[in-house]
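Write out a record, fold above all:
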Amino acid sequence: MIHSARSMGVLEWALLVLLSLLWGGSFFFGEVALSELQPFTVVLGRVGVAAVILNIMVRASGHRMPVSANAWAAFLIMGMLNNFIPFSLIFWSQTRISSSLASILNATTPVWTVLLAHVLTADERLTASRVVGVLSCLAGVVVMIGPEALNGLTVGVVARLAVLTAAISYAFAGIYGKRFSTTPPLVTAAGQLTATTVIMTPVALAADKPWLLPMPSAEVWGAVSGLAVLCTALAYLIYFRLLSTAGATNLLLVTFLIPVSAIFLGVVFLDEALSAGQTAGMGLIGLGLLTIDGRLALKQRQNRGRDKTVRPSMTKNHRI
């Protein structure tokens, strides 16, 4: 049986926007942290601090972490797909290509999710409106950031492939994470981040040798804290809440909103000017999101249906 993709309510859209604001800040915090730290060390700081915070919250809330091997195997797989692989690849790529280009490539995540969900799930099938909406959003990201961001396409081939691989990994994570729908979001977030910390620690120590580097500055400590507390701990609570109610395809639309959030924050807090290209790009993204949501098209179909039922009676009255 073919099912249609789920529509999101007002609360889910609000949470999606909030998530985009949190994850939009990760590119800024990442650039600051990478100015003095190596990529794997930044990832370890991000997931390690977030894991500690969430485990404390689990205990304080009265929940308990599962003890079965199957549960922790699932957390490990989720941590690999959602944290270890994409975080490492994106932070590494940011040392070689611009954040603007990285965000465009990262915005392909919903494209991969739509394709993979069609093959791997029964309730998030591919539709024409969903494809049109995703392509409209992707075009909006490119227009909003500007064609100059694509200049990096001539260099850094490996770095570009790294971000695309991260986007595909995020897509797989969104689909795999549906198995946690009956687990409290707090427990799931704490579990995947704890598992990621365990596998990330030896990698960072062996690859980066952080003890050989000078003590990071206060700004870098602040950036790592922002990554851990806001962009990871809080963000994943929202992530797993949305995943259970909105589905993987809808959830990963957040990557289209991240550039919008970044520009919005710049306009509000940094007094930056909003260009015509950015406005046009936001319009394309908004149109794409409305198309993907499906309710606008449904309303149009309902109106056409009502018109068909009204017209015969009007014709009959005219003849009388």
In short: Residues 218-246 form the longest helix (29 residues).
